[in-house]
Every structure is written in structure tokens, then in C-alpha cells.
Amino acid sequence: MSETAFTTHQTIGPFFHDGLRWAFVADAKDATITLTGRVLDGSGTPVSDAMLEAWRPGAALSDVGLLRVATDKDGRYSMRLPAARSGEPLAHICVFARGLLNHYFTAVFDEAGIDGDLWAQIPEARRATLLATPINGEHLQWDVKLQGDNETVFFDYR
Amino acid sequence: MKFTSPRPGQLPNNVHPPYKSTLARGPHQPRVEVLSRAAADQSLRLTRSIALRDADLTSQGQSAPLGQAITVSGRVVDEDGRPIRDSLIEVWQCNAAGRYAHVKDDHDAPLDADFPGFGKMLTDSDGRYHFKTIKPGAYPWGNHHNAWRPAHIHFSLFGNVYAQRLITQMYFPDDPLFPFDPIFNSIADKAARARLVSRFSLDETVSGVSLGYVFDIVLRGRSATPTGI
Prior knowledge:
The structure holds two protein chains of two kinds. By secondary structure, chain A is mainly β. Chain A has helices at 17-20, 117-120; strands spanning 33-40, 50-55, 67-70, 76-81, 91-97, 104-108, 133-136, 139-141, 144-145, 155-157. Chain A is built from two helices and ten strands; from the N terminus they run αββββββαββββ. In chain A, strand 5 and strand 6 (104-108) form a beta hairpin. Chain B is mainly beta. In chain B, the strands form three sheets. In chain B, strands 2, 5, 10, 11 and 12 form a five-stranded mixed beta sheet that branches. A four-stranded antiparallel beta sheet of chain B has the order 4-3-8-9, with no helix packed on it. In chain B, a hairpin with a 7-residue loop joins strand 6 and strand 7. At the A-B interface, helix 1, strand 5 and strand 10 of A face helix 1, strand 1, helix 2, strand 3 and strand 4 of B.
């Protein structure tokens, strides 16, 4: 097989909503956990035109296979997820927005997921950026900080 | 599958100052390389059906949209050249006048009620896809004085494993706006940039109906097993 150079990235831009709306799903089947938060830029300004996708290996979270939510005017998102399996993230997340020339893979964890294989690969000093904070009961909060202090860890899968 | 690190310049820089919105949004830290067997080997499971009509962006209104009818087709493969089969592609674009049917697009160009400007389809067993649309117009944006985006179609691909997810834009050959577009030029590698430009194909042109453009796509990822064994 010949090796071929891959097709590179470009921004999702500001006008994706209508084209991608058919797959907007915020509530997973069998969800027990509510995850809310904001997407923030380097100055702490909410990103009102971002999109997050959430995926769980082996779980059909919806009939499009994932959750997909857009942020609102205050940069807020909300989704409902099943409880994490021990040692695994609550969800693998992909972040998209105008002004992001690439899409960024990351993951969100709760207490059940830490000490797993993926968690162990995150530099210790930055792990807290991937840990959702309990608000009450099964409501967790997790902000995505695109840049600057406490910048969310983004992945390159290998 | 396995994923090797991109060479410098193959991906856009996170912060590309000529594209002003990247200044506050682009991450400063390099990506952290992680191995996730699940992300490298498993795909999302799409169970919602895709209608044939979704691949014809010219048939979503009461009558045909204004503009130059075109088809866009191509083959989606991985870095080994293996076809990406039965995989979801989403596309969206502005109309022939350069206006998106989006509530926040304030460009003073006419909307076309017959052109919502989005579609979706699955690749076939050989990785091929095909859709019908109209050629999008160029449009101005506020990034700098006299900034115009070259005509483009947005692509969203899922690949056959999660880590292959791709968001990109397809351009048209010989666009005079290429040298001035900071989004296109955020990719330092000239050859990588050139791979985002479709090619005109007389073979794909339908006589009396539509011009044909071909856009082949290579998703990241190689077989985890050495080839030839």
C-alpha cells in the first residue's frame, strides 16, 4: 500500500449550526449524569459559537452515535450522559469553533474515571483541566478553556 | 489503527495572527499525545438513516436554486490508501451569492429560499461519495480590509474510527483569493494547502446539466499491522 499524505484541517466557521443540527442531541440514552459548563477563550470571554461532540466507546449514546451540542450566547453547553465506567472518561470530547483552525480532541472525567489508562497519560500538573466538578448529586460542571491559564489538555491520538 | 504525528506545517497553527479570531481562541499548549485503543479502533455507531435526497442540495426547495449547478465527488481513504467505507460525510455552504442561510450571516447579499445549503451522505464500499449542489460564492468578512473568503464547501467526516474525525473546507481551482485568505494560508505546508483544492473534471461533468469537481480526501491513520506481512 502506498502512503498518502492526509487532508488537513480548516475551521468549522460560524455558520455550521443548520447543516449539523440534524444530529444535535444533548441527552444520551440511559443518562444519569448532567454535565454543564462553558467554553471560554484566553481572555475568559465565553465562546458563543462553539460546538462539542461527546463519544463513548461501545456505547450508542444516540441514534447518530454521539452527542452534539452548540454553546449558547453565554458560551454554555449542557448534556446528559450515562455514568462513567471505572477507569474510563465520562466522554471523549471534540471541540469546534470559529477561530479554531483545528478541531481539538479531549476528554472529560469524573472520579470514576481517574487512574485509568487515558488519565495516566495526561501530565499530572494539567490533569485537573479534564476533571468535572460535582455541583450537586449527579450534576457536574466542566469548562473548556481554549487558551491561557488552566488551558484544557487537547490530545493528538496516536 | 495507528496515528503518526503530523509533520510541521501540515496542520494549521493554533494561533495564526492574520486570522484574528485565533489570537484569543487558539490553544497555546502543544497537543498531548495519547494512546487510546478505543479512539484508534472503534467508530461511532450511526443508526439514523441517511436519505438519498440529503446528497442533493439542489432539491431541498420548491424549485431549483440559483447558481451554477455542480457535482462534487471523490474517494475517502486512509493514509495507507484503504477506502473509508460506509462513513458519514456532512457538508454545508453559502449560496451562489455568497450568503449562508444562517441567522447570524449579515452579509448584504440575497438569500435563496430554494437553497438551505447543507447535506449529508455515506461513503460507499469503495470509499466514494457524490453530491449535487451549486457553486458557492465568495463572501466578505470582517477580518481585515477587503477580506473575502475564497469560495468553499465545509466538510465534516467521521472516518471509520473515532480518531479520524475531520473538519475541513474544500476550495475550487485557481481561486484568485487564495493568496489573501488567512484561513487557507494558516497551513504552512504548500502541498497540504493544495490538497484542499478540488479539481475540475470533464469526466464528472454531466452534459447539459452540471460541472464536475473532484475532491479526494485522506483521513489520518494507518494499519496498526505492518503492511506486506
